[in-house]
């Protein structure tokens, strides 16, 4: 079976882990399955699903990735900062301003060797200001030259990830309902943005997190439609699953049109089914085909079996 033929039904999902708090982001590693945790750090889940919290004091831990030495870089969504959580649990601020100007609502730091790409939902806080008014999202590059803005005017920048070949930086532009990509130049600057896949994923189809598979497809979590989409390697859209709370989504879309949207209206789009406000996807297991999905609203990770292996981080 290829991804073009693959769909999920409610009974195809499972659960992994217990006692998590807002597991917005998922990371698979040899030492366990990691998830962001609203208690102030990141939690490692053992093979049996038991969790151990690492770090403390991060305000609403959101997206994160990991350096080769085991240090986690975590976006503090409520703090407007990116933090380091070292393997011993020590926490410090990596970046919260550029030349004295606060960076805003940091969403996701993507480790790329010695570089870090940081998505910023909006230069203002709280983060849900990004749901109202003009696009003020940015992408920041932090490297040996320091921190600088390399893309701006993105309408609610969500996850950003480097392509498997290292030649493009992909970004979920949530409020424009699309996936962007930027050529990465030799000096670390970004080339002209382009849309990968459909120019519009559909009504209320706000992409949040995404992951590549070994065939070059991109698996995308669609938060407010409680959905999972695939954009194939040649840019075609395939809907794997969705469970739309139609009244709540209509209320959110009306509020966005009137510049009145907020986090509560977004949270109201949660489904009662097995996939609830999905925000992140990562692949693991012995064959790389077990998918783990993060959420804003569950205390566990949602799982399913994929027809193709994901690219393990």
Essential attributes:
313 residues, globular, 2 helices, 6-blade_b-propeller_TolB-like, SGL, Neuraminidase, hydrolase, four-stranded antiparallel sheet, SMP-30/CGR1_Lactonase, mainly beta
Number of self-contained structural domains: 1
CATH domain topology: Neuraminidase
**CATH top-level class:** Mainly Beta
User: Helical segment tally?
Assistant: 2
The percent range for helix content is under 10%
3D structure, described in words:
- This is SMP-30/gluconolactonase/LRE family protein.
- Keywords: Hydrolase.
- The chain is mainly β.
- The chain has one domain (3-305): Neuraminidase, CATH 2.120.10.30.
- Helices cover 5% and strands 43% of the residues.
- The protein is built from 2 helices and 26 strands.
- The strands form 7 sheets. It has a 4-stranded antiparallel beta sheet with strand order 1-26-25-24, with no helix packed on it.
- The longest helix has 12 residues, at 246-257.
- The mean pLDDT is 97.
Give the topology, please.
Blueprint: E1 14-16, E2 26-29, E3 32-37, E4 41-45, E5 51-54, E6 61-66, E7 72-76, E8 81-85, E9 91-95, E10 97-98, E11 101-102, E12 106-112, E13 115-120, E14 137-143, E15 146-154, E16 157-162, E17 168-173, E18 178-183, E19 194-196, E20 207-212, E21 218-222, E22 227-231, E23 237-241, H1 246-257, H2 263-267, E24 278-284, E25 290-295, E26 301-305
Antiparallel strand pairs: 1-26, 2-3, 3-4, 4-5, 6-7, 7-8, 8-9, 10-11, 12-13, 13-14, 14-15, 16-17, 17-18, 18-19, 20-21, 21-22, 22-23, 24-25, 25-26
């Amino acid at each position: 079976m290829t991804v073009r033929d693959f769909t999920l039904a409610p009974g195809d999902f499972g659960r992994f882990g217990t006692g998590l708090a807002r597991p917005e982001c998922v990371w698979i590693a040899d030492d366990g399955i990691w998830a962001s945790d609203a208690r102030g750090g990141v939690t490692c889940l053992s093979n049996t699903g038991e969790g151990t919290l690492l770090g403390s004091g991060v305000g609403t831990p959101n997206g994160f990735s990991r350096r080769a030495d085991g240090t986690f870089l975590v976006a503090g969504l409520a703090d407007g900062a990116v933090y380091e959580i070292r393997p011993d649990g020590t926490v410090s601020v990596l970046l919260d301003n550029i030349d004295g100007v606060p960076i805003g609502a940091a969403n996701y730091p993507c480790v790329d060797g010695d570089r870090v790409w940081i998505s910023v939902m909006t230069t203002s806080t709280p983060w849900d200001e990004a749901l109202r008014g003009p696009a003020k999202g940015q992408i920041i590059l932090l490297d040996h030259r320091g921190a600088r803005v390399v893309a701006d005017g993105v309408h609610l920048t969500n996850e950003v990830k480097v392509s498997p070949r290292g030649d493009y930086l992909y970004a979920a532009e949530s409020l424009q309902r699309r996936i962007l990509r930027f050529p990465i130049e030799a000096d670390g600057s970004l080339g002209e943005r382009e849309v990968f896949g459909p120019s519009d994923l559909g009504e209320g189809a706000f992409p949040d997190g995404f992951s590549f598979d070994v065939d070059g497809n991109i698996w995308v979590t669609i938060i407010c439609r409680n959905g999972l989409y695939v954009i194939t390697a040649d840019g075609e859209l395939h809907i794997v699953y969705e469970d739309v709370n139609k009244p709540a989504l209509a209320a959110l879309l009306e509020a966005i049109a009137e510049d009145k949207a907020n986090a509560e209206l977004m949270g109201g789009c949660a489904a009662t089914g097995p996939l609830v406000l999905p925000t992140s996807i990562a692949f693991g297991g012995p064959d790389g085909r077990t998918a783990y999905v993060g959420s804003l609203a569950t205390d566990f990770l949602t799982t399913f079996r994929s027809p193709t292996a994901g690219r393990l981080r």
